[in-house]
Amino acid sequence: MHLIQIKPGLFSRTAPYVGSLVFTAALFIALPFTQLISDISSFDQMDAGARILVAPPPSPPDIQPPEEKEPEEEDIKMDKEMQKISLSQINLALNAGAGGMTSASSLNVTSFELSDSFADDLVFEIAELDEAPEAVVRIAPTYPSRLKKEGVQGKVWILFIIDEHGVPSKPRVTESPHADLSEAALKAIIQWKFKPGRKDGKPVKTRVRIPLEFSFK
Q: What pLDDT, on a 0 to 100 scale, did the predictor assign at position 141?
């Protein structure tokens, strides 16, 4: 067995170098831990700063409930119903005339529907009068020759108003067998003259409906 002999003075010369190497190695080993500790400290500080900078959530705004609006009233427009009016018979005293006319006893006023065109002024019905109107001038309608040859005949019903002066106005045909007969009847009726109907002793407007007959008799 051989023993290693260290020469005196060798250790004393190398000891400073060895110590320096050990210190340097320890320093290199300690540097990562120092950096890690520094990073953790910095992270904690940043996290703390972040927590300080975060503002608390805003409180919810006061929401006012919507005002309830009262429902608007809708204007309801009612259509005027056609009024059915029954009239009594009217006895028209006819002065004179020939051909194509009915007698006074056959001039009957029947039920009809009231039109809006006759609602402009106050107009009375026959049943409302104290005295019914009477025809004092009558003009016979002209019978179209073509229709006469073709044998077209019948009654043309005319609705009109007799005013306070006995003048017929606003005539219109409500029933007719032919348009040409209607035209002839309208031309004739506007030339008639009447004694106006009376109510409470005063002449008033009266609505009447009469037939004009076109016949070969």
A: 93
